[in-house]
Amino acid sequence: MKVKLSNKSTAKAITPSPRALIKHKTMSLGIRFLLSTLMKLTKKRRKKLINNIGKIILRFATKTRKRAINNIVRAMPELSIKEATDLAFDAYGNCAYGVAESFWLSQVEPDIFCDEETLQILQSGTGACIATMHLGCYEAVPLAVAKFANNSVTLTNIPDFLTDEMDFYSAVNITAINKKSAHAFSQLLIQAGNNGYISLHCDLYANQTEVTFFGQKTKAPSGVVLLAKMTKKPLLLAYAVYQDDGQVQVFFETLQLNQEIAIQNQFNNELQSKQSISQKTAPEIEQNVEQVMAQIYQRFEQIIRQYPSQWYWSYNRWKNY
Amino acid sequence: MLIQQSIIQFIEEKTHCPLIDLTDNLLGTIKSFDFMMLMLELEQKFKLTLPFEQALTANLRQIDEFIFWVEQHHES
C-alpha cells in the first residue's frame, strides 16, 4: 500500500528554493533523530515524556492555552477556572502523545469495538464514510479500519518536510491524501468510488453546516455526510481513546442517513395489529445534512463529556459565535 | 434548459457573481463542499442518479461540460 501524497508540492507547484530544501532536510533529520531517541524508551516512559513536553509547550503557548481554557469554560461552565486549566493541560499533553503516535503507527495495536451491523459494513469491502474526531490517538480510526478493509483512506495535513522523507501510513495500509493537494477532492471521490473507507475529522469549525455543540450554535464541516449521501455509502462515526495503561480503543457506530428503520418498525407494528395490507412499503424519509450533522454532534458531545481530557480543546471551535 | 438554469443559478448564488463564464473550471469556481451540494440537489430535483466518479474526469472540468453531462443523464 502506498501513501497517496501526489502533488506533494501542493497546489502551488513551486519548486522549493535551495534554502527551503536545506531547512526541510534539517527538520526532517531532527525529527528522525528525535524519533529514534523516543523509540529507545519504553512505551510508558515515552508517553509520560511526550505528555510532559505537551504540557510545557502549552505553558508557553499563551494564545493556545487561553483558547483551550475559554473553550472548556464555555462548554462546561460548571467547572472552576482551576479545573478548566488543569483539564486544558491534561488534554494538551494527551493530544501531544496522540499526534506523536502517528510516527509509529505500525506499533499501535488498537482494540476495536463495534456492533454487528457496523462490523458487517467494515468487513463488506464496499466502503463507507466515517466521521471521526480529534480525540485520543487521531490516526487510530483509519488504522483500525485498515485492520478490516484494504482501502482505508484519510486526509492528512502533514508538513512538506515530513512527506518527502517518511511514510507514516504506508506501513499500516492507509492511503493518505494530502489536504493541500490541488487534487485532494478528486482523489477522495475516486477512492470513495473504489469502495474506500474514508475517515474524515469533522469536529473542527468550518463555515458549512450550523450545529449545536455544548448548547451553543456554531458551524461544522459536513463533507463526510455529503460524501456519504453522494456515494450512497453507509455513514459511520468512530473515535479512539486511550486507556489508563496507554492501550488505544477504537469505537465504531453506524449512523442512520434516513429514518426508514424507525418508521419501518412503527409500520410493522401497525401491520401486525391490523393483520392486513401485505405489500405496502414503508415510506423512507431521508434526513437532510443538518439533521445528520446534529446527530453526529450530539454524539461528539457525549463522547467528549466522557473523555474530556482526550479531546483537543485548543481549536477556535466557536468562531464567529 | 432547466438543468442549465439550475446549475448556473446555484453557481451564481455561491459565488455572488451574476456573470458566469461557462468555460471556467467548475471546481475552481465553487468549493468542493458546494460541488457535492450541487450534485445532490440535481439528483433530488431532477430525479437523477449521477455517477459521481465521472464527475471530475478531464472532460468534465468546465461548467458547460458539466451541464452537458448532467443533461445527458437526464435524457437517458
Automatic annotation (TrEMBL), chain A:
First-listed, main subcellular location of the protein, grouped into a coarse class: membrane
UniProt KW Oxidoreductase keyword: no
Family annotation (Pfam families): Lip_A_acyltrans (PF03279)
Keywords attached to this entry: Acyltransferase, Cell inner membrane, Cell membrane, Membrane, Transferase
A GO molecular-function descriptor: acyltransferase activity
Cellular localization per UniProt: Cell inner membrane
InterPro entries assigned to the protein according to its UniProt record, in alphabetical order: LipA_acyltrans (IPR004960)
UniProt protein name: Lipid A biosynthesis lauroyl acyltransferase
Species in which this protein is naturally found: Colwellia marinimaniae
TrEMBL record, chain B:
InterPro entries: ACP-like_sf
Protein name: Carrier domain-containing protein
Record organism: Colwellia marinimaniae
